[in-house]
Every structure is written in structure tokens, then in C-alpha cells.
Amino acid sequence: MKKNRSRLEAAGGFFGITLSVNGVERAFRVRNSEFLLDALRRYGYKSVKKGCDTGDCGSCTVIVDGKPSLACLIPAFSVHGSAVTTVEGLGTMRAPHPLQTAFVEAGAVQCGFCVPGMILSAKALLDEVPDPSEAEIKKYLDGNLCRCTGYVKQVRAVKAAAKKKRGGMEA
Fold it and tell me: Which CATH number is correct for 5-89, 1.10.3090.10, 3.10.20.30, 3.90.78.10, 3.10.290.10?
């Protein structure tokens, strides 16, 4: 989708924007002061969690144009023309994404609040680095706060998903 911010239209205090969410072109009406987090949740993307509203917890992480981004810090109008991925766009109950399966199998899912942000951060990493080191995994997960675990299981899950994505072959 081509970005064209000059086509933003203000009507009644709202801007009309278009963006691709999970591969589907969508039209949103957003206020000038509205953040992407709130717009996504208002349009039904509930996996995007509202945690701290200050960019500290990572629970609102989405992928914008291929990069992990904190939706609580991004003005909604600024993503006009962008591609946004949420956890709803990764897999289904019948065919989960390898990261979703790996998180469950590794026991990395406890309360679940941080999991969407962690999975999207990990997806961005694996899209960029198919065979990441433990240090690279930790770097990408840094900023995704989890109050339930010590992050060991999440790192294991990302390693397992990377291996599965590579076809189970050791690098």
C-alpha cells in the first residue's frame, strides 16, 4: 500500500486513513490525538494490549511496515498507508503460527498479557534473522515486560520456532 498523507481528510474532528491490517486493507476514522493502540482496539484488534501507555511494557507491540513498534506511542494518523500486523494476523486456532505453537509448548504463556507483544517482537526478529543467537533474541524481547516468568521459556520458544521455521535443521 502506498503512503499518501496528503489524502488524509478531516471531518468532524476525525481523519480518514487507510492501512493494511493483517493483509486486509481497512479504512479507519481516527482523531488527531488518537494513538494506534486505541484505534486498533476500537476496530476489534484486542490482542494489542493497553499496558503502560508510556512505551515501557511492550504489551502494545505491533509490526508496522516490517518493524516492531509500540502502538501506544504512534499517532494513528501517522500510519496512513502502512502495513500493520497484529497477533490476529499470524495464525488461527487450527493453524497457529510456529511462534504461537512454540510459546505454548515451551510453557512461555502464563497470564498471556505480554504474549502478543513478545510474539510480534520475535516474529520481526525471525523475519530479519532466521537463526538468531540468544543475545539477538534477548535484544528483540527487551522492552517486553513479563511479570510471570524469568524470560527463559520465551527465549527457548523463539529458538524452537526459529529451528522449526528453518525446517528443523541445525545451523
Answer: 3.10.20.30
